[in-house]
Amino acid sequence: MNAVLAPSAVAAISPAAPLISVEDLTVSYRQHPAVHHVTCRFEPGSLTAVVGPNGAGKSSLLDALTGRVKPSTGRVQLGGLPRQALGYLPQQSGIDRSFPLGVLDVVMLGAWPQLGWLRGATPAQRDAALGALAAVGLAGFESRLISELSVGQFQRVLFARVLMQNAPVILLDEPFNAIDTRTTADLMRLVQHWHTEGRTVIAVLHDLAQVREHFPTTLLLARECVAHGPTAEALAPQHLRRAQQMAEQWDENADWCAATAARSS
Amino acid sequence: MTLHELLIQPFVEFGFMRRALVACVALGLSCGPIGTLLVLRRMSLVGDAIAHALLPGAALAFVMFGYSLWAMSVGGFVAAVAVAGMAGLVARLTPQREDASFAAFYLIALAGGVMIISMRGSSVDLMRVLFGTVLAVDDASLLLIAGIASVSLLVLAAVYRPLVVECFDPGFLRHLGHAGAWVHGLFLMLLVLNLVGGFQALGTLMAVGLMMLPATAARFWAAEVWSLAAVATLIAVLSGWGGLLLSYHANLPSGPAIVMLAGSFYVLSLLVGSRDSLLARQRSQRSHRKA
Description:
The complex is a heterodimer.
Chain A: E1 20-29, E2 32-42, E3 47-51, H1 58-66, E4 73-77, E5 86-89, H2 103-108, H3 112-115, H4 123-135, H5 151-165, E6 169-173, H6 181-196, E7 200-204, H7 208-214, E8 217-222, E9 224-230, H8 231-234, H9 237-248, H10 258-264
Parallel strand pairs in A: 3-7, 3-8, 5-6, 6-7
Antiparallel strand pairs in A: 1-2, 1-4, 8-9
Chain B: H1 3-7, H2 9-13, H3 15-40, H4 44-65, H5 69-93, H6 98-120, H7 123-131, H8 139-168, H9 170-175, H10 180-218, H11 225-249, H12 254-272, H13 278-286
Helix pairs in contact in B: 3-8, 3-10, 3-11, 4-5, 4-6, 4-10, 5-6, 5-10, 7-10, 8-10, 10-11, 10-12, 11-12
């Protein structure tokens, strides 16, 4: 199951990756901020790891980027790119893996903007889906059911769906959780390939060694932005210590944030 | 008795048998896919809850207008939609989950329905509402049932893709900019409509049987959404046909006969179905491939 990269199977990226800017973003649940006044920019074609302790707001940041949650302050700008055009790899925990669907059907979902509710797939789209499956090392799996796949194989299918989306900006939510080293290596090669193609990739990750090895840029998050820049600098020991301390400051009756209070009065 | 006399003659001879058969086929055609989607959406018991929720509306209409098809259908529809809506609202406004709030509201509705009927009607009326009268289906009911089945199939065809994706990977559908709640609500409306149609023929208690039993049986034969729905439809139609014959020849009540036959299909599938049945599991444990 070697990942054979077949970029020819997928059309050229269109449109080009835009600048993504996050301004003063706060996302809160029950009035407690998961992301607190974060401002940052993701350059076109950058490959960024978002790291931080549990509850640091990493997934909330992705949710704000995809528009799944409404920010309580600030905004996200995608440089004119419609939100549906973001490539998105969700966590497997939200997916029903026992659902009776075929592998190719799941990959084809990546072509939803073209296919919509009713249209059938063209032979070209089918070929693109088969090419995407081959690119993630699952050639020949198209007629299998997803319930027959292992966790790692299913993750490859989800990557194939992202490939099928052919998006200029790709968001990955914990893409290598509970995935074996071999699959991780194959899929990491795919991520690197997206980077060389000029796509912007933003991935939520936990494994710092992996981040240091593969990701040029890192955003260290602990509800607030602790550090953002070249990975070696962002992951300096003092930054990591600070992130850990900030994550532990949970106060049920915390005072109201002055920045919001000033704005609402 | 020839095979013709056994299987076909009753329908040739009696108009009420023909109408009952058409009603069962129409119900089976739409109940197959809807039951399949209910099972896949882990809402198997919600069908049951909604079927019971029809009762107070139908009962109130019965007390006010007598045994009127349209009044009882509209009453049942309104009551069931109200229960589904309130259960959904509670799940949205409070941390209580939808299955729990469904249970609470349908039990209230059921008790209310039985109370209304027993205050004003006789126990024969109660039996009629609870168990239906498929052999007394007239042209008007037939049109209603066939109309509901046709609309259901058309709507299902149109929203099939979002309905399946919303269930398989809700986050992805939301990412694409579609509201899952909207699809879910539409599906609940179809469910209520079909139970209203079924309740004319099979009664509130039995209507859900023709929906759930074929769908649960199909799981032991088919592996994909479309084939599950096709097998469920086939079993539902066969149950309707066979159940009517059973009730004709053995002089049994027709509604329970139809549902019992669907139940037999379920048990048979569970035992000897080609996928994951007890037999198939035992066989597959005895041998395995090299890789």
